[in-house]
TrEMBL record:
Pfam assignment, any one: p450
Binding site for heme: C462
CDD domains for the chain: CYP76-like
Species: Senna tora
Cofactor(s) needed by this chain: heme
Domain of life assignment: Eukaryota
Transmembrane segments: 21-41
Transmembrane helix in keyword set: yes
Keyword Metal-binding attached: yes
Gene Ontology MF: a single term: heme binding
SUPFAM superfamilies in the record: Cytochrome P450 (SSF48264)
Name the UniProt record assigns to this protein: Geraniol 8-hydroxylase-like
Length: 524
């Protein structure tokens, strides 16, 4: 009975599925398996060959393993994965370059391709939608902005014309420090205010006077410091663009809060200058400061690339944030390194005493006679470049660099900090030795030699090199010539760094000045 039932079931099954259909199903399965094997095992890999890099997690890639000190973290990775490596940052691809030859391909050989920016959400929030020199895409608008800045604000002729302004602010700082002889002075904070006063005087004729210096200097420095920190902070919105509208880390909200404080100042200055402009036109007077020049240029207009109010405010933001923090931090590093290396301080003071004398004050006319001081600046920028990873570049199309494909839209970090400490390039790379720049005149700030390029290279090289050089050399010469410096008791001197888009000293340099000039009247 059971046998009969099984026999019937088998007969029914065979009748339900004809042999041709079974054969068809069998052949389909074989075809599917063959296709699967071809796709996943035998088909040639047509994906672009990107640089090697550390393995990452699904979805997040390498995001969760990032170290806050990105410049040193990237340098460590390069020792494992080579001079060009890939990091998967969520939906973004990060490319890290850590050798002069690869940097040359990015910044020189393919300069036009890499002249764009992958604008972070914080950058857009800080600069009115990314309409400034730093973040605007390479093209007519960027060329217009750079031309306005370089020719009017940062040209040698303009800088020569405002020497009295720089001198007044530096002498004011010396007088302030002289009034606090024997007491600790926060060098970075006071140099920040000095540079800020120079910049705001050039922009709209404003500076901070009297007892307001310390309070306003600390307040402004906090604002600028927070802005630059937010610009360098890893942000989920940048790595997962689909989440940007939610601002999950609150970076954009915080950036708006800090920049609003500067924006209110800009609005006030623009309103005052528009009023002053009307009065000047009635009286037949020309522009007196950079802001008036910008507003005049905006009114005249250019049909192809007009200068707008947004551009004006973005340029003001660039000058105030970009000019003040970078210069004062570099001066602070230089003073710390010289105090840490007394023989360097001694050589710098001997050079100044020989050229200037101890019965005189430093003038900018002395600067070109101080080669050792210039070497101090170059060595400071070698060890502590103001922007350790520069401002990240972004290829406008896929490009081959170092034998690898760099996909369009990647965020490219050039680790100038690591290159300038590379022991295969530099003798005793971690030592602060300005004399290395005395014997060979090839080291300059032009970006032509990719072993040393603290201000960047190519089309996007820093526009403010001339101003930075003048402020640094004149300020440091005056501080070193006017005072001897020592640390307060029980405080150690270190030059440890804190990473951000702008490199800072981890601990503020607080030191005690002692007058060294022959006549107290020289400090007035």
């Amino acid at each position: 009975m059971d046998s009969a039932i099984h026999s019937n079931d088998s007969t029914i099954a065979n009748k339900d599925i004809p042999t041709p259909l079974l054969l068809l199903l069998f052949l389909s399965a074989i075809s599917l398996l063959t296709w699967y094997a071809w796709v996943f095992f035998f088909r040639p890999n047509t994906k672009p060959k990107v640089p090697p890099g550390p393995p990452g997690l699904p979805l997040f890639g390498n995001l969760l393993s990032l170290d806050p000190q990105l410049h040193t973290y990237f340098a460590d990775l390069s020792r494992t994965y080579g001079p060009i490596l890939t990091l998967r940052l969520g939906r973004k691809l990060g490319i890290v370059v850590t050798s002069p030859s690869i940097a040359r391909q990015v910044l020189k050989d393919h300069d036009a391709t890499f002249a764009n920016r992958d604008v972070p959400a914080a950058g857009r929030a800080a600069t009115y939608g990314g309409r400034d020199i730093a973040w605007t895409p390479y093209g007519a608008e960027w060329r217009m902005l750079r031309k306005v800045c370089v020719l009017k604000m940062l040209s040698n002729a303009t800088l020569d014309s405002v020497y009295d302004l720089r001198r007044r602010e530096v002498r004011k700082t010396v007088g302030y420090m002289y009034g606090r002889v024997g007491a600790p002075v926060d060098i970075g904070e006071h140099m920040f205010l000095t540079v800020l006063n120079v910049i705001t005087n050039m922009l709209w004729g404003g500076s901070v006077e009297g007892e307001e210096r310390a309070r306003v200097g600390a307040e402004f420095r906090e604002v600028v410091s927070r802005i630059t920190e937010l610009l360098g902070k890893p942000n989920v919105s940048d790595f997962f663009p689909g989440l940007a509208r939610f601002d999950l880390q609150g970076v954009v909200k915080e950036m708006h809060a800090w920049t609003a404080r500067l924006d209110r100042i800009f609005d006030k200055m623009i309103e005052e200058r528009l009023k002053k402009k009307s009065e000047s036109e009635r009286e037949g007077e020309g522009s007196k400061d950079f802001l008036q020049f910008l507003l005049k240029l905006k009114d005249e207009g250019d049909s192809k690339t007009p200068l707008t109010t947004t551009h004006v405010k973005s340029l003001l933001m660039d000058m105030v944030v970009g000019g003040s923090d970078t210069s004062s931090n570099t001066i602070e590093f230089a003073m710390a390194e010289m105090m840490r290396n007394p023989e360097v301080m001694k050589k710098a003071q001997e050079e100044l005493d020989s050229v200037v004398g101890i019965d005189n004050v430093v003038e900018e006319s002395h600067i070109h006679k101080l080669p050792y001081l210039l070497a101090v600046m170059k060595e400071t920028l070698r060890l502590h470049p103001a922007l350790p990873l520069l401002v990240p570049h972004c290829p406008s199309e896929s490009c081959t660099v170092g034998g690898y494909t760099i996909p369009e839209g990647s965020r490219v970090f050039v680790n100038v900090w690591a290159i300038q400490r590379d022991p295969t390039i530099w003798d005793r790379p971690l030592e602060f030795d300005p004399s290395r720049f005395l014997d060979d005149g090839k080291w300059d700030y032009s970006g032509s030699d990719l072993n040393y390029f603290p201000f960047g290279s190519g089309r996007r090289i820093c526009a403010g090199i001339a101003m930075a050089e003048r402020m640094f050399l004149y300020s440091v010469a005056t501080l070193v010539h006017s005072f001897d410096w020592k640390m307060p008791q029980e405080q150690e001197l270190d030059v440890s760094e804190k990473f951000g888009i702008v490199l800072k000293k981890k601990n503020p340099l607080v030191a005690i000045p002692t007058p060294r000039l022959s006549n107290p009247a020289l400090y007035d």
